[in-house]
Design goal:
It is a single chain. With about 325 residues, the chain is of the alpha+beta class. A 5-stranded antiparallel beta sheet has the order 1-2-7-4-3, with no helix packed on it. A hairpin with a 2-residue loop joins strand 1 and strand 2.
Amino acid sequence: MALVLPLGVIGCSNTTPSRSKTDASPPTDACVPELQTVFFGTIDGAAECRATQLLACGLPASVHEHDAGCGIRALDCRAVCPSYGAFNCQAADASCVGGHIVRDGPISVSCDFCPGGIGRRPTGLVMPEARATEGALAVYFERAAFLEAASVRAFEELRRALITLGAPQALRDAARSAASDEISHFELTARLARRFGGRAPPSARPSRAGTPHLDTLARDNAVEGCVRETYGALVALHQARAARDDVVRGTMEIIAADETRHAALSWAVFHWAAARLGRTAREAMHAALRDAIGELYSEVREPDVDLVRIAGLPTSVEQKRLLRQLEMSIWS
């Protein structure tokens, strides 16, 4: 599969929360996982939502760990992370010794249920608190709708910055068109959220972010557009081909086509800005791009089986393949 950017653009951009099913036997009352801490916020600009559970009786025998490291199989996360569900979970702190889980005795498990998203994010984005929702698909499309609404603000911010910095009219118009696309994407994903038993988040709020300097705009665009949005377009294309649900597949076909244009806009802004930056600022922009690529690799997780089958999300192996493809064809 290839991501083809229009306009001849040549480059130089979670996973999703889940309530996966598990065949783990229900623990006795004394062994029920106990919620210890919950964190909502941002770390290094990325949204983080995680809970820590204490398993007083150790890891159940029916819960499997990955072949290497202290990660727990995604299908088993709900058994050890019942408070919020989890798209990813792993033994934490002293429960992980030498890259292996200490299965016996009390162990602590870190449960990720609201990972950093894919796509262009506005300044100061704060993710909403998680809530109990029926099923991984409802949670996924609720979050997707929230991020689509946030992207409306992001493109409004980009357009105002391009106007202030004297960018060509074609770039300004493309940013305005992208904001309009994201409104449509919000409506489409909100409809899917309701279809799978979830609810739609509020629509986008007007942005109050100030206008950045050119070097700041260049770095932010490299991260949010050239890396995260470019990858997001490729993931959407994958979903448009792999989703078994006809409605999801049709929706992702629309979104993938739009997001490919948005990625092309990001690269056009990248080259426009690069031509006007000094050497130090250009190097900082390229460094930000490389760091963002590394962050995407660190966010690779195994999605819930329903998200792979019905929503067409790539598996962890496929995510790495898509990232390597982008590195060879666009990010190189």
